[in-house]
Amino acid sequence: MTALEPISELKLEGITKRFPGVLACDGISLQVRRGEVLALVGENGAGKTTLMNIIMGLYRPDSGTIHVNGEEVHFHSPGDAYARGIGMVHQHFMLVPNMTVAENLALGLKELHHFMNLDIKGAAKRIREVSERYELPVNPDAYIWQLSVGEQQRVELVKTLCLGARLLILDEPTSALTPQETDDLIVRLQRMASELAIIFISHKLNEVKALSDRVSILRHGAVVFNGQTANHEPSELAALMTGHDVVLPRNEGSGVQGEALLSVQNLCVRGDRGNLVLDGLNLELRAGEVLGMAGVSGNGQREFADALAGLRPVESGQILFGGKDLANCTPREIIHAGMGYVPEDRQTEGIVPSFSVKDNLILKDFAEPRFSKMAFLRKKEIDSNAEALKERFDIRCPSTSTATGSLSGGNIQKVILAREISRGPKALVAVYPTRGIDMGAQEFIHEQLLARRREGIGILLISEELEEVMNLSDRIAVIYKGKILKVLPAVEATRERLGILMAGLADPDTPGDAQAEVPAGAAHE
Amino acid sequence: MNRNKILYSGAIILAVTLIAALLVALVLYSIGASPLATYKTILTGPLSDLFGVTEVLVRSVPLMLVALGIAISFRSGILNIGAEGQIQMGVIASTAMALAMPHAPKAILLPAALMAGALAGALWGGIAGWLKAKLQVNEILSTVMLNYIAAQVYTFMLRGPMLDPNELETGSGTPQSMRLPEMAFLDTLVPGTRIHMGLILALVAALLVWMLLWKTTLGYRMRTAGAGAKAARYAGIPVERYLIVAMLMAGGFAGLAGAVEVSGVHHRAIEGISSGYGFAGIVVALFGALHPGGIVPSAVFFGILLIGADMTQRSASVPANMVLVLQGVIILSIVSAQSFLRNPYAQERFFRWFARFSASARKAGKGAQS
Predict the structure, then answer these.
(1) Do residue A468 and residue A504 come from a single domain?
(2) What DSSP line would sit under B186-217, residue for residue?
(3) Which residue from B216, B217, B231 is facing A352, i.e. has the nearest CB?
(4) CB contact (8 A) between residue A354 and residue B227
(5) Is A335 within 8 Å of B228 when comparing Cβ atoms?
(6) Domain boundary residue, one of A392, A423, A454
(7) How many domains does chain B have?
(8) Under a CB-based contact definition with an 8 Å cutoff, are residues A392 and A444 in contact?
């Protein structure tokens, strides 16, 4: 724990790392100094995480050197990196939920471990010092499981600083945060940046723009761009990141909207803790429209989607779909009624990770005559189906026999979307369809959703990215505490107006509009 | 790429087996036995004559059947530790069925006895499956407890209702049932040895299990329920139902193993008939990568170990229980190898170490030359 001298500069030169069949890092050179935020952006699989693992001593580079303060270093473990003041906050938090904040810190601080005695008070004291100094409020005695995701993120930062890190590597720190928590984190990081060096990994370019001084773009393991963030527009960076111009498609409106397809009336659903999470929700989805559902996550979106898919019991109310009430039907019945569902949890709910791509593509249809005959699977049909969908949906995998869980998030989402769309649903529920997905895949997924809209499918898009909702939707419903607060045409929506509604406040544009009112556009009209 | 991966995994497993053998060699050495002689006896002794080979196969039959059932249950996401009890229930039921119809023709009696055994095992396993599906009772707990119950039921039946009347009148009172009518015997394959038709049955069963798991929609459902319960529910597969189905099948195979032991080898229910096949079957299934194609050779391999252990006891005066030690070490090694294969960091570290090691070895070699 005795840092030789505070880290003032980290320099990578010509870092190359080869894995069987992949060149993960191809001669990467980077430099970051104290008082500076370097954004490292790139699509999934561009080599960002491998590079960071090399800095932290988890991997050794095949060639290339790492210099700290001008002196060459060889790290053999994260402990070595910490000893020189380099620390990393991983995308998935490394915290023990049933321990307190102080206990979690004590896990990593050997000097607090005395014979038969663990100095928890010392850990708490150190947390208080660091959290005051860097304005990161954290209660050392709180249990991790009691904290929100945003608070856990702060704990990770404090922990890393307590361990002596003065160069922070943040691997997609905002991927699990709500928009409010993200804004808060960015402000705090800006304040901290003067005393530290920060490497900020992200593919959310507006965050990169807001936080970083310089930006380096990785593509296929090589640095393709270095520059001052201030001099470049996000669209320019996006093009460099993906290798082509990225124009996120927009809903051009004027679609012929058909009749009501899905009509939800007075839906009440209980959450995991037994409380009513949906409390009389009314909503109507029409054929040929994208209905965006905006809201801060945790206001009942997940439970709503679960109930629509038959995965959560409905307490009361109706889900009318094609003249049939689907409330409390089995998932199978709902699938057969023509409902498609892109779930929030794509890693373990949308796919079986250990199954091949082709097996995941028939997850809902394996028993249909197309893929089976007399209880036997038709291998040839399954293979050709997979090849066709791989082509059509641009699923990038070594082969359709590859385990789906080993693909990047964007490609997993394409597998799910390919399956759900190719089944020819009447309605599609998509929950956070592009969360944590890189620009290229995001563009593709948006195009696909809009194309389905033109074909007359009704799409319910649940998202917390306002830009996504505003770009794609015909109408936008704002959900707050289990009710639809307001449904408004997308053309009338602005970031500010939606933000105010999402906070549960009355709509400023329609005087007298109150929370409790039955929302406009509800099914009773 | 895929093929390289298989080769790589195979090499790791082989290395791990060697490490396990080395560890056991240490134990052997410490009890004063010669590790080399012991291994030689274990591995070559059983295969040195026809009798040894057939005995190995006799042992491998119940192991194969039990392991096939274990593979089905593990693949479906439920860990069946209860094969031992299911075997015993199978033995009781098939013996009772065979004794109940002493004059029935073979075409009826033999299948009826085997079916009864499979059915009883299935019901015994099904209890654990039902408890798990309906009441979320941990299956490890329930199957182990069912083992205890089955053991007591078995002891009671052999000493009470099913005890051979002749034993009471003229015999020593050995707890065993009456001898089965000959119409309930599985035919011997090689005259003069104990190898029987059960071997063919087990091989056919292996083929059927492979087809079931990888070629049918039922197998797809079961594997989906096991590999991703959440995704299975999302796709409209009632996971709980397939937990019960899996336990019925797993129990059925264990019960069939018991029935085959009775009809093929002992021709009556005796004490200790299973001799741990229910637990060894788990090892066989894991060693065979939960795949019928791996389970068949793995069952034969464990058959060799069992017979070899008997031989070492006689020739090298090493306790036969040493095989249990070997089994335990093998399980631990396999589990470690699997987590090693899943952990890229550990592999990276290993290769780094290996590269350094081989580099210094080369240097040393050059130094020696010059």
Answers:
(1) yes
(2) PPBSSTTS--BTHHHHHHHHHHHHHHHHHHBH
(3) B231
(4) yes
(5) no
(6) A423
(7) 2
(8) no
Q: Tell me, yes or no, whether B177 and B224 share the same domain.
A: yes
Burial class (CB in 10 A: 0-12, 13-18, 19+), B321: exposed
Per-residue pLDDT reduced to its tens digit, A241-283: 877 777 778 887 765 567 889 999 999 999 887 889 999 999 9
Taking alpha carbons only, the member of A451, A470, A443, A492 closest to residue A203 is A443
Tokens of A19: 């894995």
Split chain B (370 residues) into runs of 10 and give each run's mean pLDDT: 64 80 86 83 84 92 96 94 95 94 90 96 96 93 95 92 82 84 88 91 97 95 94 94 96 97 93 88 88 92 86 76 77 76 72 75 64
The answer to whether B254 contacts chain A (CB < 8 Å) is: no
Q: Is residue A456 part of a domain?
A: yes
Give the residue from chain A lying closest to B211, CA to CA. A376
Q: Which residues of A touch B (CB under 8 A)?
A: 20-21, 53, 58-60, 309, 311, 330-332, 334-335, 341, 343, 345, 348-355, 359, 363-364, 366-367, 372, 375-377, 379, 398-399, 401
Span A456-479, mean pLDDT?
Answer: 91
Same domain? For B267 and B292 the reply is yes
Residues 6+ apart with CB under 8 A from B253: B65, B66, B68, B69, B72, B118, B121, B205
Regarding whether A276 and A170 lie in a shared domain, the answer is: no
**Interchain CB contact of B216 with A (< 8 Å):** yes
Beta-bridge mates of residue A339: A427
Say if the Cβ atoms of A372 and B234 lie within 8 Å. Answer: no
Report the C-alpha gap between A470 and B302 in whole angstroms.
64
Residue B304 lies in domain: 50-317
How many domains does the structure of chain A reveal?
A: 3
SS3 for A496? Answer: helix
What distances in angstroms separate CA B91 from CA A161, A281, A511, B180, one per listed residue?
65, 59, 81, 12
With contact defined as beta carbons under 8 Å apart, do B242 and B132 qualify?
no
Give the sign of the dihedral formed by CA A31, CA A32, CA A34, CA A35: positive
Indicate the angle between helix axes B239-260 and B277-287, nearest 10 degrees.
120
